[in-house]
Amino acid sequence: MHAEERERLILAAMADNGFIAYRALEARLSASPATIRRDLARLEGEGRIERVRGGAKLAQDDLPVAPPAPSAALLGTPFEQSIGQNTEQKRAIGRAAAALCRPGEGVMIDGGTTTFQMCPHLESLGLQVLTNSLHIVSALLPQQGTRILVPSGAVFREQNIILAPAGEDSMPRFHAPKLFMGAASIGAQGVMQADVILVAAERRLVDRADEVIVLVDSSKFATSSGNVVCDLEEIDTLITDAAIGDRDAAMIEKAGVRLIIAE
């Protein structure tokens, strides 16, 4: 396969959400990692893409633009329904996640019913928190020492989160040591969400974090389908509950991910 054809396939693979993981590229192109790196270097030199953690994304001018209507609904389980599922496990996971935060640091907390459970345990830490979740904003507002940042975009009522259209980067210029994020499901393919708009938003967060921490209760391993946000190898730490199966635990540890079992 000629370089020109590989480059065309690389750009086509990014068409849906503006990002492709290195491992996915290797599978699609049947080329060596060194060849793919050279292809990406050429495309980056031409200003077509940007290489980021775990893969590459389209440059801003080439990103697909598909603005959602403010009243559009996201695929997936609404927040008010999900908040009542596996509540005790989520509380334990949220508590364990909050214990990883250091006083005074800046963190990003992605919207979700498991990340939401971190909020009661953050009050004394004096954090700077970037979040796209209005539920998390409401929970943090009474904490006088917590500084809150939010992106611009449309409000999606089912999850009560703020998301920008695909291709529009509305996040403040914010880089954080840690990103805490949930998932609709998780499997050998990686961390998955039901909606491509969520995938694009979470990729922006992943690209801004030194450490990616995924919070999922063990039921999220039961199904592994959806749109891939990131490979398992891009995760630094995964926090779940004691009901995780041995096979799933081995899969996580084989990927080099630190596994924390919340009690």
* CATH level-two architecture of the largest domain: 3-Layer(aba) Sandwich
Order of helices and strands: HEHHEEHHEEHEEEEEEHEEEHE
Helix content: 25-40%
Q: What form results from the Cα inertia axes? A: globular
- Structural class computed from helices and strand pairing: alpha/beta
% residues in beta strands: 15-25%
Q: What is the number of strand segments?
A: 15
Radius of gyration: 18 Å
Summary of the model, kept short:
The chain is α/β, with parallel strands linked by helices and 263 residues long. The chain is built from 8 helices and 15 strands. About 3% of the residues have low confidence.
How would you describe this structure to a colleague?
It comes from Sphingomonas corticis. Keywords: DNA-binding, Transcription, Transcription regulation. Residues 3-58 form the HTH deoR-type domain. There is one protein chain. The protein has helices at residues 3-13, 22-29, 33-45, 79-82, 87-98, 134-140, 196-206, 246-254; strands at residues 19-21, 49-52, 55-58, 106-109, 128-131, 147-149, 154-156, 161-163, 176-181, 185-187, 190-193, 209-215, 227-230, 237-241, 258-262. The protein is an alpha/beta fold. It folds into 2 domains: 3-62, Arc Repressor Mutant, subunit A (Orthogonal Bundle), CATH 1.10.10; 79-262, Rossmann fold, CATH 3.40.50. The chain has a 7-stranded parallel beta sheet, with helices on both faces. Helix 1 crosses helix 3. The protein starts with a helix and ends with a strand. Mean pLDDT is 83; it is low at 65-71.
